[in-house]
C-alpha cells in the first residue's frame, strides 16, 4: 500500500473515533470537496470560463461543507450568504491587482518541469490565478464564518433580550479573536509549501530585489495576503448578516 | 404639508443621529484611525512606486507598444518603446521586442506604463548597443496588496489585529533566520525543531496572553505535533516511501525528502495551534463559568466543540495545499496527461501535506482537551473528584 492510502485510512479512523457520526460526515465532506475540486479543474480545462466556474464551485463547496455538517438552519444560511459575498468581493480585489502584477503561469524556476510539454495550450492563465487564490482562501473563510455565526446564534438563544447592535458587537469580538490564529494557520501552511523554493533562492544568492520581483514569490505572497484579506472581510460581513437574519422574524 | 413636516422631522432626527453616533467618541477614534492608516498607506505606496533609483539593475518604463500577429493566432509579437528610469542612461529611449502567447504560461504581455528590468550591453563609449527585457518589476503591486491587508487588519481588528500582524511579522523573521542558519551549515532538523517551539510559544502568547490557557495550548500543540510526526514517520518508513514522488522539487540541490518533511512539520503547526487555542480557551471558559463542573461534563462539552471545528479546519488545510497546484493540473490536463498520473504522481506531495495536516488537527482535539482538563482541575483523568 502507498503512503497516501495508509494516511487516508488513519485519517478516516481518527475522525470516526474522535468525532463519531459527525466525524464520519467530516471525512465524507473532505472527499466530496476533493471531487468537486477535480470537476472544477476539468471544466476549466475544457475551456469553460474559469471565473464563473470557480465562483459557482465555491458556492457548491461552501453549501456542502456548511449544510452537510451543520444542517440547514439560520446560522448556516447566514454563513453561506457571507461566504458568497466575500468570494465575490475578493474576486474584485484580486482581479484588479493580479492583472497588474502579472503573476499568472509559471516562473522561470519551474520551467524544467514544464519544458517537455507544449506551453501553447489555448487556456488563458490570467484568470486562473484568481481561481487559485479563491480556492486557497475558501476553506479558511468558511471556517471563520461558521465559527462567528454559530457563536452569535448561541449568544442569541441564551439571551433573547440582547439588542441587535450588541449582538453585532459580540460577533465582531469573536471574529477579532479568531484573526490571530487563522492568519498564522494560513501563513504556516503556505510557508510549508514554498519552503523548498526559498531554500533554492538563497542557495542561488538571490538578492532581496530579485526575490520581491520574482514571479513565484509574488504569487505566493499574493495568495497569503489575499487569504488574509478574505478572513478579515468575512468578520464584519458575517456579524452583520447573522444579526440581520436572527432578528428578521421579529 | 404633513409629509413636509415629517421630512423636516426626519432631517432633524438624522442630524441628531449623526451627532450622537457618527461623531461620538468611539466612532471619531475609528475615523481618525482610518484616515491616518490610509494616508500612511498611500505614502508607502508612493515610495515603492517611485523607487527606481534604489535599484542597481536598469529599469525602463514602457511608453508605447505596437503589436503584430505571430505565426499562429495565439502568439503575438510586441514592439516596445521604453524610457530608462535610472542609472547612467536615465532618460534614453530603448526599442525592445517581446513575444507573448494567449495562455501566458511562460511569457508576459506588456502594456504602456509597465516597468521592466532590462539588461543592456554598452560599447567602449558607454553607448547602448543591445538590450533585452530581463524581468518585470512587481514590487509596487506587492506593496499594494500588503498595504490593503495591513490597513484592513488594523481597521477591523483594532488592537487584536495589531497583535496578529505583529505575530505574523515575527514568525516571518523567525522563518527567515531558519533559512539563513541552514545556509550557514546548521543541521536543519535541530534548528527547525527549536524554531518551531519558539514559533508556537510566541504565537500563542501574543494571541491569548500569559495565562493558564496559553500554557495548555502550548503543551497541547507540542505534544500533538510530536505524535503526528511520529505517525507520519512510521507510515513512511514502513512503506519504504512507496507512493511519494518528489517531481515538483526537482530543482533542489539537496535531498528533497528532508526538506519535504520539515515543510510538513511547519505546515502542520498552524492548524494544530489553531485547534489547540480554540479547545483550551473554550474549556477554560466552561471551567471558570462553573468551577465545580464535573470532569465528565467538561470532557463531553470539550468533545462537542472539537467535533464542530474538526471538519472546517481540515477543509481549510486541504484547500490551501491543493489550490497551489491548479495551474500545473490544468497544464497537464491540456497536454493530455491522465488524471491518475496527475493525482498519484503530480500532486501527491500536496495530498500528503493535506492528509498529515488533517491527522494533526484531529489528534490535537482530544490531546489538548485532556491536557487542559488535567492542568485546570489539577488532577488525573479517570480519578473521580470525590
From TrEMBL, chain A:
Concerning InterPro entries, the annotation shows: UCP031503_TM (IPR014564), YibE_F (IPR012507)
Q: Which organism is it from?
A: Vallitalea longa
Q: Name one Pfam family in it.
A: YibE_F
User: Is Repeat there in the keyword field?
Assistant: no
Coiled coil start-end: none
Which keywords does this chain's UniProt record carry?
Answer: Membrane, Transmembrane, Transmembrane helix
Protease is among the record's keywords: no
Protein name as annotated? YibE/F
Q: What are the transmembrane regions?
A: 29-45, 52-71, 77-98, 119-142, 187-209, 221-241
TrEMBL record, chain B:
Q: Which InterPro entries match?
A: YibE_F
Keyword list (alphabetical) reads: Membrane, Transmembrane, Transmembrane helix
Q: Which Pfam families does this UniProt record tie to the protein?
A: YibE_F (PF07907)
Q: Which domain of life is it from?
A: Bacteria
Sequence intervals crossing the membrane:
30-48, 141-158, 165-183, 189-208, 215-239, 259-288, 309-332, 352-376
Q: What is this protein called?
A: Membrane protein
Organism the protein comes from = Vallitalea longa
